[in-house]
Each structure stands twice: as C-alpha cells, then as structure tokens.
Amino acid sequence: MREFGSWPRELYPGALDLLTCLRGQAELACLSNTNALHWEMLCDVHALGEHFDRCLLSHRLGLLKPDPAIFERALDELGCSASEVSFFDDGPGHVAEALRQGFDAEQVDGLDGLRQALERRGWGTSPSGTP
What we know:
Strand 3 (86-89), helix 6 and strand 4 form a beta-alpha-beta unit. The chain has helices spanning 2-5, 15-22, 36-46, 58-61, 68-78, 92-100, 110-120, and strands spanning 29-32, 54-57, 86-89, 104-107. Helices cover 44% and strands 12% of the residues.
C-alpha cells in the first residue's frame, strides 16, 4: 500500500505556475480519474486542490472517464453547458467522449502541449497573463 501511494511523485515542472497564471481567466476545474490515496498525497505534497475552483474526482463521483455520465455530472456540478467548457486530457478516449458531448476538447501531450492548446484559444499562459 505504501508503494501504491507513492506512485504520483511529481507534477509536470511548471504545472502549478501555469495554474496560477490561468487563475482569474476562467473557472478552473479538474476532472480526474484518481483515488483517495493519490489525491490526498497530491494535495498534501503539492497543495494541488487549492489551484482549482472545483475538483471533480472519480473516487468521489463514483464514475470514471470516459463514461458519458461523468461528463454529464461535471456539467451539472459546474452549472454550465458543454460548449462553455474547454477540456484538455492526454487520453484519446476521454477527449473523444468530451467531443461527442459538445465540449471544446483537445488531446494534449504534457505541459507544453497544454500551453499550446491554451494559447490557440487566446488564454495567457505567462506570468503576466498574456500569451
């Protein structure tokens, strides 16, 4: 159990800085296939949960991506329509389901891929908040 709990050791370098830059540009939410043990570690070590306005976690929702129900639940929790949400994920199946449901969704590879996707949408990703 100790080894299992230690799996998610580090975040992408610069991930927390990027979240800080995005703060105030939009409501930030994470939709994560995680478990209570890993989420607790990420929050204890990196204060990850504090960087999001909403944390929609599979172990709390009882659903996993790419189940269509988790995307529907996310929209209910956020109180918005799919067209109002930009969804980024590294999982092709997760992105495909988000697109099927009408999300602005894109598969990204790592933090550089996410920055590029955000900048294409006009979101500032530098500390000044400009692209």
